[in-house]
Amino acid sequence: MAPPPSTAQKSPSPSQPSGKSEVSDLKLQLRQLAGSRAPGADDSKRDLFKRVISYMTVGIDVSAAFSEMVMCSATSDIVLKKMCYLYVGNYARCHPDLALLTINFLQKDCRDEDPMIRGLALRSLCSLRVPNLVEYLVAPLGSGLKDGSSYVRMVAALGVLKLYHISAATCFDSDFPVMLKSLMLTDPDAQVVANCLLVLQEIWNLEANKSEEASREREALLSKQIIYYLLNRIKEFNEWAQCLILELVSKYIPSDSNDIFDIMNLLEDRLQHANGAVVLATIKVFLHLTMSMNDVHQQVYERLKAPLLTLVGSGSSEQSYAVLSHLHLLVMRAPMLFSSDYKHFYCQFSDPSYVKKLKLEMLTAIANESNTYEIVTELCEYAGNVDVPIARESIRAVGKIALQQYDVNAIVDRLLQFLEMEKDYITAETLVLVKDLLRKYPQWSHDCIAVVGNISSKNVQEPKAKAALIWMLGEYSQDMPDAPYILESLIENWDEENAAEVRLHLLTAAMKCFFKRPPETQKALGAALAAGQADTHQDVHDRALLYYRLLQYDVSVAERVVNPPKQAVSVFADTQSSEVKDRIFDEFNSLSVVYQKPSYMFTDKEHRGPFEFSEEMGNLSLGQESMDNTPRYDESDKDLLLGTSEKEENGAPSANGSTASGYSAPHDYNSSLVSLSSQTRPEPATSDPSLPKHSSHGNIAIDDLLGLGVPAAPTTPPLSLNPKAALDPGTFQRKWGQLVISISQECSIDPQGVAVLTTPQALIRHMQASSIQCIASGGQSPNFKFFFFAQKDDKSPSYFLVECIISTAAGKAQVKVKADDASASEAFFALFQSALSKFGML
Prior knowledge:
InterPro entries: AP_beta, AP_complex_bsu_1_2_4, ARM-like, ARM-type_fold, B-adaptin_app_sub_C, Clathrin/coatomer_adapt-like_N, TBP_dom_sf
GO cellular component, one term: endomembrane system
Oligomer: single chain
Protein name: Beta-adaptin-like protein
Distance between the termini: 100 Å
Keywords: Membrane, Protein transport, Transport
Subcellular location: Endomembrane system
CATH topology of the domain at 613-842: TATA-Binding Protein
Number of strands: 6
Strand order of the largest sheet: 1-3-4-5-6-2
CATH superfamily of the domain at 613-842: TATA-Binding Protein
Radius of gyration: 35 Å
Low-confidence stretches: 1-19, 610-717
Mean pLDDT: 79
CATH architecture of the domain at 613-842: 2-Layer Sandwich
Helix content: 40-55%
Structural class: mainly alpha
CATH class of the domain at 613-842: Alpha Beta
């Protein structure tokens, strides 16, 4: 038998071991080199370590060499250390029993003279994430937070977060949050400060729902002293850390207008930063700070234009799109402020299609009397673009501008010229737009019908365009001589038409044409009704049957139903509600702006952020009745910004915001930071105790089968509520996160109430009669969710917050109550239950 070839003759592929003995050979070679001081030993170890890492990377189990790898780690070669730490971190989770072998050498490396090795060892030690080894992390982390090297302190700060995720109790027992806060306020290294801030934010966000103390600590991070301390040092941080700080500042609630101007002066130079993320984060701060100051808010928009337009023109197409998405959001909120900059949104030849589409939307939004001609002229050039989707979008943009009542005469002429270009997709898009124009401007019917009548229906294949053409044939059949005969030819090819939308329009057009030209259309209408009743599509069948029975009942009645006098459409419905747009604006500088939808629409619940209320509010709509005092935004407002129901008149003069960018915050904010770092640490959060049980009143009977009458509703407890209570969503969210649940109870709902509860508004109006306001609601039958609030009528700021989840299928409501005054919770719950039990009763 021939001996196997030697490794010198043929070396195996790193990703394909030559046989089962390959790992054994690696172990043997590693064991021979362990502890070797011979020249070149480290080079040999490197080669072997590289092979082990290669096998591990492609999924080959090399955990059998764990002890040998640990023995070979006794070296001063930092490259070997890194590879060994990588190997150990990979297999420690799968083999926690083997991870115990690494503790000694990792702890030893944590005391090494080289700060790089100390930091790497500490990072690897914290990355083991084995619960049984938590006790070995405390001492190295404590030493790391006090280490003289900033790199080690930076690693130790992140290590505290890893320890928290393994064992939160150990983290709090070791006073690490207190140490991090002290380090954040005193450390000279900016990256260490940033890491401490990141860790503290995550810890307190996760603990806020479990502990009132943790909630206060989270609020403390938004204190004036800490905010100004971080802002005064913001130039020392890298881009990532600056974005972290700016995101924190955007949540800060300033005390007065001077506070707002101080912060804006400190951040003025950040608008000229080369990094787009920093600029967008700064813009978010400016927008959120000035939302209650109309004049200043408008000046902020003017100030933000130049930095954003500069960013759009620099960098990659992807970056331009991200910046354009945020600029698009601002343009949609205040189009008049950007109307003079329309040329910046002209499409460039090199722009990708997704950038061009966004620019077309912005050109449509900013069009007004002064720039309509130039914008429409530019858009008409795009109609002949080789990129068909962009050509379609440009035609739609022209139509949208026409619907905005700007220079309609010229725009209609341009649209009718598109019909003469004899390109199928241009004709299709134009027909759809002409239909909408005729609905809004009936006076243009003569000119439009003259051109549309020359179009052959055989050349229109797209369902929407064919449906638009058929609509015009029916609506203006008296002005189109061939309308009955065109409809007849289309009805003859009924079975060849696949789109139900077209068949539905054919039925309606045939009816309209019959009422205007009965002799010519009678045969076509009969064929359409027969084909419609035999159609397999339910909507088509039902409409044909409806028309047939209407004609059978009374022709004059049928005409009043199908072809009544129409008024011109004044405004077309927006595809997005104002609540959704405001939610996207609240999530400025996030993917929500890029996707043009709130985060709850594209993220799982567990990934929507740390605030429980924010997660739950995602798919709820704000109750309009309770939002009368909160700012709403409407681009049709006179000042184009902040169209609130109650304008705030105490805005500070705008001149205060024009100081130099070298402005520094008052020093007394920095001098008071020492006291902040010495606060007592919070107790570790424990599991919530079982909620107290409350005796519920007798449930109302489902039905009075014996004829004894409906039982009386529970008597109203002696608690008076303020009928004009008001609470903004931000305060509600903050209170919901801070307060603990005082009552959690299931209630029954009367069957009459179940029958009435088809939409959330029915219950909202009913509860308002009991001075219980709704701030958010959502869902659809059979499941609804509400957030209510009420206020004591004793001039005190004591609020009751309620989460109410109703299942109409079960006739049950799960109610959770939180209160500023917990002693009054039971009385309020009885009142709430009483009001809920009366829902649906006459």
